[in-house]
Each structure stands twice: as C-alpha cells, then as structure tokens.
Specification:
Elements lengths: L12 E8 L12 H15 L3 E5 L3 H10 L4 E4 L15 E4 L3 E10 L19 E9 L5 E8 L5 H19 L9 E6 L7 H8 L4 E3 L19 E6 L3 E7 L3 E2 L2 E2 L6 E6 L1
Parallel strand pairs: 1-2, 7-8
Antiparallel strand pairs: 1-14, 2-4, 3-4, 5-6, 6-7, 8-10, 9-10, 11-14, 12-13
Length: 267
C-alpha cells in the first residue's frame, strides 16, 4: 500500500543517514580513526538522525560512536566475518528517544545468505545486509530499514547482491503484498546511478526512489568531487523533504573517505 494512500495513518517523518565510516586502519595516517573519532561523533550530534546505516565500522568503532554520542543511540548488526563481532559491520544505529527496535537480523549476500562469512559471485570479501523493523514512538508507525555495502570488485556480486536484498525486502516487510510498514534502504553500493545494480533497484517492483541529487559522496580523503556511490532509498511515493551530502572536516582531517547523506523523508 503506497504511502500516499495512508491518510488513515499518523504521519511518519524520519531523518535518515547513510554513512560509510571507513574502517580503522593506521594506513590512513592523519585521517586514521583516532584522528576522526571525535569529528564523527560531533557530526552525528549535529545532524541528529533518527536512524543511520553505517558501513565499514569495526566492533570497537561502533562502540566508540555509541559512547561518544552519550547513549543517544543503540546499535543492531554483526561482524561480517563470523556473524558475531569479527570484521566490518553494516550496522544500524537508531535514536532511542525516537525509535524502538521490534526485530532485526543480518543476511549474507551470497547463495547461502544464512551462513556467516559466505560469499559468492566473485565477491572479494563477505558482504552483508542488516535489517530491522523499527517503531516510531511519536506516531506508533512501524517501518523497515535495510543497510548494506556491496562488493568493490565484482559487478556480478553487486547486481546479484542487490537482487537478493530486493527479494528480502519483500519477504521480510511484506511491502509489495499490501504491507503498510514502508521499507528504506541505505548503503555504499560501489556503483553510480548509471550502473546495473542501482538501475535494478530503481526498476524493481518494490518501488524505491533515490533521495537527493547526484552530488558526489566518495572522495578518498582528498579535496575533490568524486562519484556518488552512497544512497538513501525510500518508497517512491514518499515525500523527500530534504536530502543533503554532508561535508564534515576539521582542517585537513575528514570525517571519513565518504561524505554522509542525510535525508528527511515523510511517508
């Protein structure tokens, strides 16, 4: 059931962020995590998103962000290397003053999605999608949130991974079968809007739209406008109140090698 036909339901307005936080590696030198940690937490406090799709954080980075935002957020997700805490997460953070978690899970982007660390289709490393059913406390409305990070090497893995996510959105949320809890999808897709996986998402009968303009999001810690490979997808019938790419830095230190996207969406 489309958002526009939900006149009988209280309004649902969410501030959604997609943020590739960049994993902690000393190789980043002046932009390594210890130099960016305070900046990242400051950015979250400034933007105050209701729900965040994080890509790449290691377990300790996730704990750092939770500690540095003074208990405003709770986290959902697992490490991709063991289904517990090893390796990168595609975590979901939600603001506990605005939302509560009903249920959640993680699946691997492979032909064995329930098997931790599984990979397929030429992927260079395990890839996951973490999802949650969340309740908006003010309105009482439920919605579904999916967050992922597609492979950086295999185009086939990106396309098949995107297709698996679309099938899981339908299976988990029931959206295309008349469900009234809308789905949202965030992530670093390692593709632009002109590439096959993004085109597949936009053409799918799930009915999603990309929020915002084509402004670049990846910059690699350099003062340049790179490609837009990070996206916030919302139901096609939702109203995108605003959507901005956030350029957060302190001197020559960037919050990450990607600019976050913040979208305000009404449904």
């Amino acid at each position: 059931e489309a958002c526009s036909s939900m006149a009988a339901y209280p309004p649902l307005q969410l501030t959604v962020m997609s943020f590739n936080v960049r994993y902690d590696t000393p190789a980043d030198g002046p932009n390594a995590w210890p130099h960016r940690r305070t900046l990242a937490a400051e950015m979250l406090r400034e933007q105050l998103p209701d729900v965040i799709g994080l890509q790449e954080p290691l377990h300790h980075q996730l704990n750092d962000l939770l500690a540095d935002t003074t208990g405003q957020y709770a986290a959902l997700g697992v490490g991709r290397d063991d289904g517990v805490a090893a390796g990168e997460y595609s975590a979901i953070l939600y603001r506990t003053a605005a939302l509560s978690a009903i249920r959640s899970g993680t699946f691997w982007l492979s032909d064995r999605p329930a098997v931790p660390a599984s990979r397929a289709w030429g992927a260079a490393c395990p890839r996951v999608c973490t999802w949650a059913e969340l309740r908006h406390l003010q309105s009482g409305r439920h919605f579904y949130f999916f967050n992922t990070h597609l492979d950086h090497v295999s185009a086939d893995a990106r396309l098949r991974g995107a297709d698996l996510i679309l099938h899981k959105i339908v299976e988990i949320s029931g959206w295309s079968a008349g469900g009234v809890a809308p789905p949202f999808l965030t992530g670093d897709f390692n593709e632009t809007a002109r590439d096959p996986a993004i085109k597949h998402i936009l053409a799918s009968p799930v009915g999603l739209r990309a929020c915002g303009s084509d402004a670049g999001t990846f910059h690699g810690f350099a003062p340049r406008a790179g490609p837009r490979i990070d996206f916030v997808f919302a139901p096609a019938t939702a109203q995108v109140v605003s959507s901005v790419v956030v350029n957060k830095q302190s001197g020559s230190v960037y919050v990450s090698d990607h600019h976050p996207i913040v979208s305000v969406i009404s449904c």
